[in-house]
Amino acid sequence: MRRVFLVVSAVVGLYIAVRVARHPTTPTSPAPRAVSASAAPALPRATETPSLSDNAAIMRAFTNRARDIRVDGSGSVSRVLPDDNQGERHQRFLVLLPTGQSVLIVHNIDIAPRVENLRVGDEVEFEGEYVWNLKGGLVHWTHHDPSSRHRPGWVKHAGHVYQ
Q1: How far is CA 132 from the centre of its chain?
Q2: Is 38 a residue whose pLDDT tops 80?
Q3: Domain holding 17: CATH number?
Q4: For the segment 72-82, what is each residue's pLDDT rounded down to a tens digit?
Q5: Count of domains observed in the chain
Q6: What is the model's pLDDT at position 46?
Q7: How far from the centroid of its chain's Cα atoms is residue 114's Cα?
């Protein structure tokens, strides 16, 4: 069992290393802002919308109980939750992926602008860091990092990129 875990960990690590090498970081801005998708910096992926394999990577991260894994995906908003106002403020919402898995998006609104007019049923795309939990996991770091220690993340909704 331990050997299987080590092999799976090595494969996931290799996948992440290759994925990060293929997707350079996005330019960041010093202040929170929302921009139209046409005026936004190039998103860090080769295709215009995430493929099923991107959402499947989130499913694998959940199965492997992974944390701090860079992911991107898309889905529909299934629930808009109250903001978390403890410490830095975060906008929170659940996204149902096409794989059937739900993930909690935790978007820092002290660093990035709030995703405006977000409603149940809206389609969103996102990139950030995945952290496993029993309920499907969460994705945070969906914004630029003012200290440049994390690769910039983002949320795309209704033609605007929030980072």
Answers
A1: 13
A2: no
A3: 2.40.50.140
A4: 999 999 999 99
A5: 1
A6: 33
A7: 15
